[in-house]
Amino acid sequence: MTSRREFLNGGLRLGLGGAIAAALPGVSFAASAAGAPPFVVVILRGALDGLSAVPPYGDPDYAGARGQIAIARPHEPKGALDLDGFFGLHPALAGLHERYAERELLVVHASASAYRERSHFDGQNVLENGGDAPSGTASGWLNRALGALKGRAVTGLALGQNVPLILRGPVPVGSWAPSALPEVEPELLERLRDLYSNDATLAARLDEGTRIDALAADEMAGEGEAMRRAKGGGIERLKAIAETAGRMLAAPDGPKLAVFDAGGWDTHAGEGGAEGQLANRLGGFDKVLDALRQGLGPEWRRSVVLVCTEFGRTVQVNGTRGTDHGTGAAAFVVGGAVAGGRVLADWPGLAPRARYEGRDLRPTTDLRAVAKGLLAEHLGLGRGALAEVFPGSERIAPIAGLVRA
Prior knowledge:
By secondary structure, the chain is α/β, with parallel strands linked by helices. It is about 35% helix and about 10% strand. Residues about 1-25 and about 180-185 have low confidence and may be disordered.
């Protein structure tokens, strides 16, 4: 565990054949900048329970506070996967544990956006707009980061019913997802081009949607089993889509920045501990992340994936054996380019007097400091560009050393 002193120093939806995402609600990929190394932001909507995903089993107040959903210590039956002798991973996150052993996973605990209330909608807005308040900007920080990559051909890709706020803004965004819809006839496509010919922005977005559709078709071609899984349901479908998206990110002319959006983390009742509802979701998510890694292939070594959520959950269990909306949570930075194999945590403790408002894990790390550090070290954005991406956040310094030198 990093000490306090060490820590402080330290678009447009197009009606093209593959571009409709109604078959996969709640999941999206987004973005690209030619020549950039792969960078993926994963948003776990619904508020992930960071105290179960990354149990601080070494905290003397952890087991008593969590009661029936506490994750046992490592080497005990169904115990945590040890990280550093104080923190562990939920036993369902075996794939992420392997990445930690390979020094490709960095855990950021007791982290949060600037939001301190408990509304999913407002919390997600703050997480995605990169500001201090739910309103005030209609664009997202990842779209602004794309715009800050000056001198590069910047385009966008989204897989899902909607382009998430984090990617909305002036930079054009296309979309893709496996779909049962027929491909657009060439004659109709030409009519659309004629219709948009006098609007450079719409024309650019149409061309990008067409390009992404063709790229996706190429990546799926010959992948009979992947196509069958993609047309099915559940975790196998998500794995197939993640693997294909990884190949798209790895393609020389493919997207390089991305958003993966997954819901279902609002565990108010029957959350479970080492087994149960949350364990099943974590296990599935672990497999989807690994499928993305496999799809990226050799490009994984140049990739960074930031996994975050809108806020955490209460320390104590409620009357329905779940947890309610909280504050501090856990974030993950994973990828071949990550300086991992460690936990970054200015740990506040779980004693009642140490909790935020007496009930939540107190956040000590602003997620913008993590995002700024990654944009600076992985994508090369300077101080001026970071100020454009996160306006009004000059007091939040980028965390250094998140990416391998």
